[in-house]
Amino acid sequence: MSDTEMIGSGNMKIDWVLNHMPVLNIIREQFEKEKPLAGHRVGMALHVEAKTAALVETLAIGGAEVAIAGCNPLSTQDDVSLALHQKDNIQCFAKYDCCTEEYYEAIDKVLDFEPDITIDDGADLIFKLHTERTDLLPSILGGCEETTTGIHRLKAMERDGALKMPVIAVNDAMTKFLFDNRYGTGQSAWDGIMRTTNLLVAGKNVVIGGYGWCGKGAAMRASGLGANVIVTEIDPIRALEARMDGNSVMPMKEAAKIGDIFLTTTGNRDILKREDFEVIKDGAILANAGHFNVEINLEDLTAMASSIKTVRNNIKEYKLTDKRVYVLADGRLVNLAAGDGHPAEVMDMSFANQALCVKYIAENKLPDGVHTVPSELDIGVAEMKLMSMGISIDKLSEEQSAYMSGWECGT
Ligand SMILES: NC(=O)c1ccc[n+]([C@@H]2O[C@H](COP(=O)([O-])OP(=O)(O)OC[C@H]3O[C@@H](n4cnc5c(N)ncnc54)[C@H](O)[C@@H]3O)[C@@H](O)[C@H]2O)c1
Ligand SMILES: N[C@@H](CCSC[C@H]1O[C@@H](n2cnc3c(=O)[nH]cnc32)[C@H](O)[C@@H]1O)C(=O)O
What we know:
binds nicotinamide-adenine-dinucleotide, Rossmann fold, eight-stranded mixed β-sheet, 411 residues
């Protein structure tokens, strides 16, 4: 494709999702009128695809200058990246299939742009700011973090007294994790697995590693597709929940013997490792929807393999002594590296929170540390979403309000 065709293709993708992101559109209209980000420079590291482009445009419409890098070496869509880079007040440095060096070069370019507000997905920008680029910290007003793992990293920095800027934990907004992590991952991880393998899910033993918000969504949709779902957990409460939702629960070393498709969603490392590969069935398919590329231990698998070859786009075959094991998208997020990411209607809420939190940082001086999304913003996003869906709900009457806040009434 020529550059002109790439830009055309990227812009078509952006227009399509924008038509399905009503809450972000309401915010765009407000930003257009009020220009709340005038004079601000927003530096971002997110998955560069169409819904993210819609967020970037919203921030630019709000008056900001924006520079963006990717947050995963395999999730950038180059046509969208190029289309974004052509737009006023936007620079995009993301590239698909970049090596680690190129990945961090792009992050550095975003920091060279000297942002005063950051948006991260996994905290790579903030990590760099606190290690090699500390000279930039004094001019940072604050940042936003998109995902669970990023928040774990930031809270660990806060515990160690290392976090030197305020960050809003956007992931922890209810209008984010209850929908994005659960319904978004539930749908898009299976979309990625199915379009990549072109295989049937019905009748298979599907093993879901972790029963957090992503795991619940992934298990729910696997069950709907007709799979026999097995969950592995380390948390007794979540294991119980998984069982009572109708799944089997067992340790991975047992699940490894019977699973046909494995999907990790823990945010932890080594969920599938040597001892599991030793007992895993011939033909097993391994995918990750958690984070980075450490949930499936590829070093173990590589060491055990007599050959490794690509057998279809985004599928690598590892030949072990007595079997073949298939890894999707190099163990990186299967929904983004082998698919188009979450549905637009879900990212609508996640990115509405991002846009509103960037505005909040621009308008409020926050102390260093990890902050929750102000509940009025979170509830506001839910109200706008319901309105856009044509759904109205009941209101408490005065009597109900008084009853709910009183203690005098008994049996
Ligand atoms: N693919 C995507 O688009 C997408 C979307 C949202 C979040 N994420 C990422 O997915 C990961 C999970 O996010 P979440 O919001 O579901 O987190 P969560 O904290 O709600 O759930 C993680 C679960 O994994 C379990 N777990 C941890 N170590 C385990 C182990 N060794 N074996 C089995 N279970 C284990 C935890 O007990 C927990 O229940 C994070 O890395 C997050 O950043 C990815
Ligand atoms: N950057 C790390 C961390 C996990 S990304 C997980 C985040 O991706 C976000 N996400 C999922 N789908 C999309 C999408 O289509 N566009 C942009 N972000 C997305 C989602 O909000 C979630 O919190 C990595 O790549 O491994």
